[in-house]
Amino acid sequence: MGDDTATARLTPRSAVAIAGLVLATAGTALPLSMAAPTLSAQADRYGTTTADTTWVLTATLIVATVSAPVIARLGDNHSPRRVLLSILPVIALGLFLAGTATGLTQLILARALQGLSGGVLPLALSLTQRIVPPGRRTLWVGILASAFASGTALGAVLAGVLVDAYGTPALAWVPLIIVVTAQIVLVASLPSTPTAGSRRLYLRASLALGAGGVALLLAITEGSKLPYPCATVPLLIVTGLLALAGWARTQYRRDTPLWNRASLRRRSALIAAHIMALLGGAALFGMFVSLPAFVEAPDGLNLSIVIGGALLLPATAAIAAVGPLAGLLRRGLGRRGTALLGAITATAGASLQWIAPHEIPVLLAGSTLLGAGVAVTFAAALTVSIELASADDVAGASAPNIVARQLGGALGAGTAGAVIALASSSTRFDTAFGIITILAAGVVVAAVGLPRHLSRVRSTE
Q1: Under CATH, which architecture does the 1-191 domain have?
Q2: What is the DSSP letter of 306?
Q3: DSSP per-residue string spanning 34-73
Q4: Quick check: helix, strand or coil at residue 131?
Q5: I need a labelling partner for 355 at 20 to 30 A (CA). Which of 22, 207, 394, 446 fits?
Q6: Backbone Cα Rg of the chain
Q7: C-alpha distances in Å from residue 446, one per residue of 181, 280, 396
């Protein structure tokens, strides 16, 4: 383990371990978004309908939403190293089964196993707090947050290219290689980590969070295909909101797997951080759906799918490059200033795509600014969640923020897709870009809610 001073450098073994954590985070994030752009290709391969293949995506999102807080709490209880090295092979098995799937049912089950990827980032963040010197932790939180966000974004970009070149099995083989490599690196380099001892999992609170997220995800991703959607979708939304409200109520009444009581004294900061993650995820994935659709549509630019995907690459690169800078920016701008800078940058990028002429240079600039700004806010939101946790609760404290980001991504993608599907509307793309701008502006409002000063919770219960 590295020296525990603000100026200490990583030991060679710790540096290799961090590289393995980045690989694991990016590799497990890739499959989370690869299914969305290739549903029609999957339907053709298995001789079914696109409506049926949407469960390939929905199964992953549901498992990720339900399992992330439980996996995080298990890591806090029984060593994040042990839990991470246990779930990576299960995720790899899911990828292998997806690559060899001979039917849609096997593919859906395989993708469900891949949903355990939602627990990888909380465990990686917890391990980072244990093997990285304090003065460098914020930097590596930003790097891991960017690895997750850029991995998810890159999955959407690469999916079409891989399917065109190698077929749908390539969607599994590429991340499988990365995950297996990460497992080998981490087995060799991760130091042992102490455990906090056996504590309650509080499964009721975790299931309430998962049930609320699942209900909202079903309303977003499957609403149009459910029986009597006019009644079913509002019912799912109300059910999801009630479940989430019940979960939130438990956070004020007892210790849970999601953060400890001491951190609730600063619950306004947590609420602001989670809203930032939710709205930032919605804005980013709304853009990742809307921009390629506009580029390819006859009433848009009417260009090829290759160009549509290429326009997302600068945003993905910006996410990877700028997220790690959040820690450096914070030294000069402070917590709130850094979050506001990211949120304002994202809003400026979204506004360019909405208001300015819809030309390729403008669209590129807008997507790059949006990606860069959201990356900074993601890192800032995660840092707040981690600072409010004791050293033994980092994984559990960061899990709700990551779940909020995933739910936001599904919300943004689903909303943008629904708006664009209104083919009879001549303003469908302007409406989609306008919604994305409003979501990004909401991140600015949430960032204002972050306190200027925030002391870390030191004690555990």
Answers
A1: Up-down Bundle (1.20)
A2: H
A3: HSGGGHHHHHHHHT--HHHHHHHHHHHHHHHHHHHHHHHH
A4: helix
A5: 446
A6: 21
A7: 38, 10, 22
Q: What is the pLDDT of residues 235-254, one digit of tens each?
A: 888 888 888 787 777 665 55
Reading phi first (left if > 0) and then psi (alpha if -120 to 50, else beta), residue 48 is in beta
- Per-residue pLDDT for 5 more than 70? no
Residue 386's CB is within 10 A of a number of other CB atoms, namely 25
| Least confident residue range of 36-50, 177-191, 349-363 | 36-50
- What is the distance, to the nearest Å, from the Cα of residue 340 to the centroid of all Cα atoms in its chain? 20
Distance CA 61, CA 358 (A): 32
pLDDT at 405 over 80: yes
Q: Which of 125, 111, 112 is nearest to 83 (CA)?
A: 125
Q: Which two tokens mark 384?
A: 């707040």
pLDDT at 348 over 80: yes
d(CA 382, CA 359): 34
Cβ proximity of 112 and 94 under 8 Å: yes
Question: Which two three-digit tokens encode residue 82?
Answer: 């042990």
Burial of 174 (0-12, 13-18, 19+ CB in 10 A): buried
Quote the CA–CA distance of 78 and 72 in Å, as a whole number.
Answer: 10
Q: What is the pLDDT of residue 346?
A: 96
Of residues 174, 259, 246, 188, the one with CA closest to residue 215:
246
Neighbours of 461 (CB within 10 A): 11
- % residues pLDDT > 90 (the chain): 27
Tell the burial category of 201 from Cβ atoms under 10 Å away from its Cβ (0-12, 13-18, 19+).
middle
pLDDT of residue 203: 65
Phi, psi (rounded to 5 degrees) for 363: -65, -40
Kindly state the tokens that stand for 379: 């890192």
DSSP for residue 351: H
Residue 79: phi, psi to the nearest 5?
80, 115
Q: Which residue has the tokens 């999955």?
A: 155
As assigned by CATH, the class of the 266-461 domain is mainly alpha
CA distances from 306 to 157, 158, 165, 353 (A): 9, 10, 12, 20
CA 86 to CA 88: how far, in whole Å?
6
457: pLDDT strictly greater than 70: no
Cβ 410 vs Cβ 418: under 8 Å: no
